[in-house]
Specification:
Layout: H1 3-11, H2 16-19, E1 27-30, E2 33-36, H3 38-49, H4 60-88, H5 95-113, H6 126-132, H7 135-140, H8 149-161, H9 164-167, E3 176-179, E4 182-185, H10 187-198, H11 209-237, H12 244-262, H13 275-281, H14 284-290, H15 298-310, H16 314-317, H17 322-341
Antiparallel strand pairs: 1-2, 3-4
InterPro entries: Glutathione-S-Trfase_C-like (IPR010987), Glutathione-S-Trfase_C_sf (IPR036282), Glutathione_S-Trfase (IPR040079), Glutathione_S-Trfase_N (IPR004045), GST_C (IPR004046), Thioredoxin-like_sf (IPR036249)
Domain GST N-terminal: 1-53, 136-202
GO molecular function: glutathione transferase activity
Length: 342
Amino acid sequence: MNKRDSYMAIKKTVDWSSASRVDDMPTLVDDGFALWESRAIMQYLCNRYAPDSTLYPKDPKQRALVDRSLNFDLTFLNQIIDVFTPIFSGNQPSADKVTAFNNSLKNLDQVLIKQDKYLVGDQLTLADLSLLACWVYLEKAHIDVSAYPNFQRWVAGLQAELPYYDEINPIHSVPTLVDNGVALWESRAIMQYLCNRYAPDSTLYPKDPKQRALVDRSLNFDLTFLNQISAVVLSTWSGGDQPADKLATFHGTLKLLDQVLIGQNKYLVGDNVTIADLSLLSMWVYLEKYGIDISPYANFQRWAAGLRAELPYYDECNSISQSEWDEFIARYLAYAAASKTK
């Protein structure tokens, strides 16, 4: 499951048409009050539930400095996007965008942080937490920040101070669920956990040991299938040929899926849709976008068409335009190239 998949999965949990008029994430719904924009959400949560917290100081001057940093942070994030979106699309950012980005880094390093441990005062605040979230973008894009030692020191200090920075998601995987102190990544494990914790009687993950075993088997098959899809198509993104051995393995798996796992059945397991169906169906968009010929696999086609018709949110979740898909591929190639040269 990729970042867009996890976004859409969360999006279906509330009535977003009224909760978030701009279709933005994250959005908080608290006792009927809907609020989007992460910085405003943090401010609201402190004001509502922790008015005396040093995270958002009550002193007007200190609070003003926190608010200033939150606004700087938002500008900085937009500058990161301005610079690196063209790169991910195979183009070069304009010189004025690069200059503005570097100037903000310099101001951050020499004016806002300087020799201080925190952005504002002697305590960790929302300003630190919000700005630290930008670090992952710089890190993943392999941005050289060696010229900004104060910024590097500040980041390292916060990473050491905040144990949950890496504990929540040490392998930096999406999606990751944090539920009442339990941090869990891998979409299949998340689905299993949510059913066990909050819907133990749901037919999505049947309680009968034999039925559950069949669901678990399909989830493991599905993960193998995804890896085989990746092995076949990733080489073509950079202009290479599909490796014959991996292609043969992939079609062998498709044949097994079509004739053995699905057969003439409506669902993978039993008479109800399960998380096995939901997980495997998410592979369909990859097959579509990769242009893989699945015409020999009639049962698979029928199964997918039936689920798409039954699940009204499928098309909403997976309505990826070709331009969005092309941009995703370009970003992947840019990231892969940067990783090799780092």
